[in-house]
């Protein structure tokens, strides 16, 4: 069974360090940032959305926990923010990661179902997200969880 448990300060510190590096790498792969600027821009972007870390209002940061055979395993992380719009509240999924050794076992899809309930309880009537075009695994997960494409941005190298 999958649960979303609020991150501890130690988990958050590790998560934030990993996220800054991972987001920078994704932006480089996508051709949006150069390697020279990526880490700084990544750090600035992430801190914009969680300036107070775990105590940032409307930010929900969770450890993804698998309960199995009376053991609890930290198998990934999830982060969403709630934003208000004229039509209502939206939970925007900023990060979901299932650690490599736990991938391909259906835990991502189970986590997305638990996310639905957490977002509802936080007052959201919709969940939005962004996915990098090169992240085919995530694209498949989101489509299988019922997400529809709302916008596509494309580019071509010359």
Automatic annotation (TrEMBL):
Cleavable signal peptide: none
Pfam families: Acetyltransf_1
Xref: CDD domains: NAT_SF (cd04301)
Cross-referenced SUPFAM superfamilies: Acyl-CoA N-acyltransferases (Nat)
InterPro entries per record: Acyl_CoA_acyltransferase (IPR016181), GNAT_dom (IPR000182), N-acetyltransferase_domain (IPR052829)
Xref: PROSITE patterns: GNAT
Domain N-acetyltransferase: 2-158
UniProt protein name: GNAT family N-acetyltransferase
């Amino acid at each position: 069974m999958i649960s979303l448990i609020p991150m501890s300060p130690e988990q958050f510190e590790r998560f934030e360090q990993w996220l800054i590096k991972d987001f920078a790498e994704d932006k480089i792969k996508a051709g949006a940032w150069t390697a020279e600027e990526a880490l700084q821009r990544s750090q600035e972007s992430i801190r914009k959305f969680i300036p107070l870390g775990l105590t940032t209002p409307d930010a929900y940061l969770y450890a993804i926990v698998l309960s199995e055979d009376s053991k609890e395993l930290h198998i990934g992380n999830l982060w969403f923010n709630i934003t208000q719009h004229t039509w209502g509240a939206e939970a925007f999924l900023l990060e979901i990661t299932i650690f490599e050794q736990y991938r391909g076992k259906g835990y991502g899809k189970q986590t997305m179902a638990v996310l639905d309930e957490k977002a509802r309880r936080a007052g959201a009537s919709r969940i939005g997200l962004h996915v990098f075009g090169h992240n085919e695994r995530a694209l498949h997960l989101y489509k299988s969880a019922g997400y529809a494409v709302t916008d596509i941005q494309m580019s071509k190298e010359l």
